[in-house]
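Exercise 7. Given the components listed, write out the predicted structure of the assembled complex. Treat all entries as one system.
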Amino acid sequence: MIPLELNILLASVMFTIGLYGLFTQRNGIKLMMCIELLLNSANINLVAFSAYQPNVNGQVFALFSIALAAAEAAVGFAILIALYRLYGTIDLDNINAMRW
Amino acid sequence: MYQDYAYLIVALPVLAFLLCIFIGWRLPRGGGILTVLATFAGLILSLGIFMEIYPDGIVHQSMPWFANFNIGILIDPLALVMLLMVTFVVTLIHTYALGYMKGDPGAARYFAEAALFTAAMLGLIYADNLLQLFIFWELVGLCSYLLIGFWYRKPSAAAAAKKAFLTTRIGDLCFLAAIILLYNNLASLNLNLGPNEYLLQFPVIYANIAQIPPAQLTLIALGLLGGAIGKSGQFPLHVWLPDAMEGPTTVSAMIHAATMVTAGVYLVARMFPLFYAAPHALQIVAIIGAFTAIFAATMGLTAFDIKRVLAFSTVSQLGFMMAGLGAGAAVGVMAVGVAIFHLIGHSFFKALLFLCSGSVIHAVNTNDMREMGGIGKYMKWTMYTMLIGSLSLAGFPFFTGFFSKDEIIVIEYEYGMVINFLPYIFLILAATLTAIYTFRMWFSVFTGKPRSDYNKHESPWIMLAPLVILSVFALAFGFVAQGSFYSYLDSNFEHYDVNFKELGVIGGHVSSEIHLAGEQIAAEAEGHEKPAEEHSSETAHGESGEAEHMPAEPWYIQILPIFIALGGILLAGLFYWDRIKKFDADQVTGEKDPIRIMLLKGYYQHEILTAWFAEHFVYGVSLLSNVIDIKLVDGWLNWLSAWVLGFGGHVRKVQTGVVQNYITAIALGVVVLVVAIEVIKVVIL
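Answer.
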């Protein structure tokens, strides 16, 4: 059995990568991918804790979370496609119609 | 059987209104025939009800509405004669309008509004409670506004409509205040009401007047009088009525002569027991009415617009009616019969006169009498029907106006015996002036030589037929109906629980010793209280017939009105009839005569009300309010909104539009949150 610490380490590394991507990237799709990383690191935590503390609830929540992530991705990509049609780019620096 | 359908009297014109306003433009002549038929059905129904309940029945139907109010129908003699008059006169006027409005692009709108007006007026008449009456009263005011401004593209018509609406609004406010006061007073009595009785129902009001404090009664009566003054164009709220002549002539005939303006008189008659019980109220009614009568008559003397002459005469005649009601202070409830008789007769001959003037205007295309003259040669029917109307208005013996006006002058004399002669003197002078200005108008329109080049043709038969029918009534109604009318109207309040003797004591019209000592002394009592006491005891006990109870006036008082009428007509003839012309108005008074100029300018009302009051006083007050409004009321609000705007202007810079900034903020926020939670844990635990 893989020790719990390794699971948590993996999750935090994934989370940090995702956060770093969010801070640095400009491309909409890359941002979506980073968000997926954040979500999945949280899922790993849920599953890991659920496995070490015999209780299936965490895994159930992970499943819910995956389903929600799928929905979120669908909406997000739909928005990106719409933005691309409107602006001809998905570079978020150029998409700032709502700024003050 | 007819009384079960009494609601149709209002419902049918409402239906006609809906039909005319929505599909009238597709129907020939704007659907006017619907309005005529609806009103005519009302006349048939009213006649049917009259046949059923004459001479001593009433119709009272009522259903709950909400809380302490109801809607209902109350047809007693007073309401019934009004119903008959309104449906009859308005049917004729609508028929006439079919011809008069022919070809007007707004005919559908005209007939829709006219139908709504008819419904409102009829609803006002047979409302069984004061609130319902008020609702229809307002509706009548609205229709008046709409119809005066019928040619709303004409600035003067739009202004006249606004003036009428605002002026009557002042009166309506008084009326509403009076209703609220009355309701409060009645509610504080904690009455035991029967299953179908409500506080503002007339029978309930009548039965409980005596329990309301007299000071409150006077207040209520003055409020009601305020409403009546506004609606009936009495001084000082008369200013709207002459201007209301901007509407089509049929409107003037229907609303501003025959029906609507009588609503004020009707209200006072309807609430007569309350006025009778309120100290001083009837004296005020009498003096306002009499003053208005002479005031308007003098202005009628100098007006050149044929419709304005008739408008001033309407104001003046309404003053007669009010004064007649006011004379009730001395003669008791018979004043209602006298005033309403004049009201009915007046509506016949005034509608006739207006329709005749409409016929003249229709042909000549001007209102100015200076451009008429000699029209009689070309419009024989109009000339003779108008002659009948004018004779009736002037009080020529044995015409309708003669009987009704005489009776008012006679009871005013009795009032004078008891209280003071001021109203009597005013009315005598007003009656003289009435004869003069009426025949000044008739002579200068129909006799002499044409003073301008006008169209010479008679009006179509659809306009002449109502004239002929109305002239029959203007001629014969007074003579035929006089006796039975008075006794029928005098029986009006016998249907209710009203004790006029008790009310008279409260109002100070009947001295209390006589009241306490009983009727024997009352019969023997000499002097001032006698007529009032005698009459009120008579009506309270339901004995009708008044000829034998009327105190005899000296013979010269009774025949004076005849001489006044004949003298006035002769005087007008000497000035304006070319066959016997002796004087020229310009030579007698001269152009510069101050009185003449004053009358021409209508007592400088325009100068006082518009130029001085409106443009200086009201304008000054408005300027002040404007400053307060802008600097103070708007000021702090503007300051607040400017501050909010400025603050938002700074805060909105947070929205940079750069995604990374937002993420940084979120991440920082999470960090701060985590740190804060840790700190709190350490500090608290």
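Discussion: Chain A is about 75% helix and 0% strand. Residues 57-87 of chain A form the longest helix (31 residues).
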